[in-house]
Input
Amino acid sequence: MIELAHVTKVYPTDTGEVRAVDDVSFTVDEGETLCLIGTSGSGKTTAMRMINRLEEPTTGTVRTGGRPVTEQDATMLRRSIGYVIQRGGLFPHMTVARNIGLLCELEGYETARTTSRVQELLDLVGLPPDTYQSRYPRELSGGQQQRVSVARALALDPPIVLMDEPFGALDPLTRRQLHREFLSLQDILDKTMVIVTHDMDEAFLLGDRIGVMDAGKMVQCGTADELRAAPANDFVRDLLEAATPEAPGA
Amino acid sequence: MRSPGPAALAALCAMLTAGPAAAADLVVGSKNFTENRILAEMMAQLIEAHTDLEVERRTNLGGTMVVFAALQSGDIDLYPEYTGTGWAIVLKRQGTRDALETYVTVAREYQARYGLIWLSPFGFENSYAIAVRDDVADRLSLRRISDLTPHLSTLRLGLSHEFLRREDGWPGLARAYQFPAAATPTGMEHGLAYEAIDSGRIDIVDTWTTDGKLARFDVTVLEDDHQFFPPYDCAPVIRQGTLAAHPEVGPLLARLAFKIDNRRMQRINALVEAEGLSFAAAAHRFLDEAGLLQAGAAAKSAPTPAAAPTPTGTPLAQLLLTHVWLTFLALLLAALGGIPLGLWLTRHPRFAGPVIGATGVIQTVPSLALLAFMIPIPGLGLGSRSAVLALFLYALLPIVRNTYTGVTEVDADIVDAARGMGLTDRQRLVLVELPLASRTIMAGIRTSAVIGIGIATLAAFIGAGGLGDPIITGLQLNDTAMVLRGAVPAALLAVVADVALGLVERRLAPPGT
Ligand SMILES: Nc1ncnc2c1ncn2[C@@H]1O[C@H](COP(=O)(O)OP(=O)(O)OP(=O)(O)O)[C@@H](O)[C@H]1O
Ligand SMILES: [Mg+2]
Output
């Protein structure tokens, strides 16, 4: 369970302050998936990075499992939160297997256990281990790299997973396929997740609830039906209109 | 004086420097060092003042064999020479005689063999000498070279490379005076030796009796009581034909005979070397003061040093080993210090500009100056410690800079992913940033190595040895073969290091990148 309570993040810049996140509150329940959507620069990434303490809030409190994150050890906290960054961020000098298994290694898993975990995860994200485990990231397509990133985020079986536009850079066909696989994964894994997206269809498809952000504010947060029934303002209405009437693949 | 060269090279140089036959009545030549050039000016000005002859100057010729060849060929008519040089270099005589016998012998042989005439000496002797710092001389009552014998194990000797090597230098001196084997002189550049003796880092230097610096530093020249140093009385040497063609010239030059003693020559040399007068102005001042521009005169005095270059030479393997060792040690220290420093800067970036800037400033200090700075530092002094420290400082910049930039240039997404997945700062550094920066860091080490191998040749200036030894001595002795004996291995070493470290660099490069 994730809670943000009146969280504000202000960046000082040369031209003055930027309120990247402005008094945002939301909760993601155990096993629930929240999709954050909004225009570029609306504060989605910043809000998400405060959950695993890559950024510290200027004011307000972030909690996971009921405890303020600032009271938790940053390393331990981050290892309990899987994190997929936008462009994958795979380590180019490590094989696929080492990328995925690195945290297991650091957590002191025996080699055999790490190996079997890596194979399990590669199977899970649809990459046959024998073919892929000893490749380097640059020997993979963009979609394959994205899958490895997801697998790496799941290595320690964290209760929380954060994904920042995980399917953003992919072509529509690959993206659709990954969506389908992701949905079945979600069923198996039962994680608490926050997914950042630009795409309303994706938000409807993947999210139990959707949080709409604009200019650092959380404009509206609710299920697809709640949003459709009572859009909070024109911005939400515009977003809904841009979406395909009935999300495909749902 | 000091500067013969192999005959073939000399002939070539003579050809290059001789040029077309002069239109002048008389051509005065000189070697390429201060004293000789001043004396040539004196002779030229004296002749110009008292005759209508048109005098041409061809001074700054590169070494004894060059000037001698020019004199024989008639490209020049006269030049100032030293009896010891004529004895050893031109006549190739072994052993030494007293000053008079040396003079008589060279005069006779030159005339018989070459038709060249030694005129009366100027009166000074430019010979090797041993000088001690005044306070040491007073404390130990040192007046003569033989007084040194009981103190040699405690006194610090900083001797020029040439002196250390020449048979008529340290090796012969130590034998003639039966110095104990415990005496271990350090080789160093003569100019730096005075600084070192002045700052108290060494007690004894070799010098020559007309060195202008003797007047400026608080040192005492010890008497050569066993008369080991060969006599180097200086006198004009002139072509017989010139004397016949211009009979007034011989008596004119005789007016300079015995007019300049050692002290006087020291002061005249200092006019140029310390006070910045031109050769011509220094010569003119002397002639004027001595009243030689109006009438005639005569006096008496002694000679100058130069001698057979008998470089015994440290074995190449040992020079190479010293060179590699100096460079390697400095490089190792620079890597051990520079990589952590560069990494620390990535965590404290506000210091990066100033620190990298400071290491850059070090690089702009001329190598020889940096070496000289080390000498007064307690615990360093002459020798390999100073050399290693100087080389270390030079090696720092490429290593620190490449470490810093190598790490900071690691893709921000990769660093972000590493932080986000919960790597500690240390794990991120060791597992991600260092491997990805390793190629850049190694390139810095490689740059430092190649620079260091070059700069290490200068270490010989402060007595640290290495391949610079034959280079420096060769330059002083005008001996190209000896210069190459150091320069070629140094260049090869740099190439080998570059290639080898390039291979390491490629091997170190992380896979998959
Ligand atoms: N480190 C920072 N320093 C200053 N301003 C920042 C910083 N990080 C983000 N911002 C600003 O905060 C605002 C929110 O940025 P954020 O990255 O959270 O947006 P986003 O919603 O994720 O946008 P996108 O969809 O383009 O990824 C932007 O105006 C951005 O310029
Ligand atoms: Mg973003």
User: Anything to note?
Assistant: Strands of chain B lie at 26-31, 55-61, 78-82, 116-118, 128-133, 157-160, 186-188, 204-208, 219-221, 234-239. The first helix of chain B runs from residue 7 to 18. The longest strand of chain B covers residues 55-61.
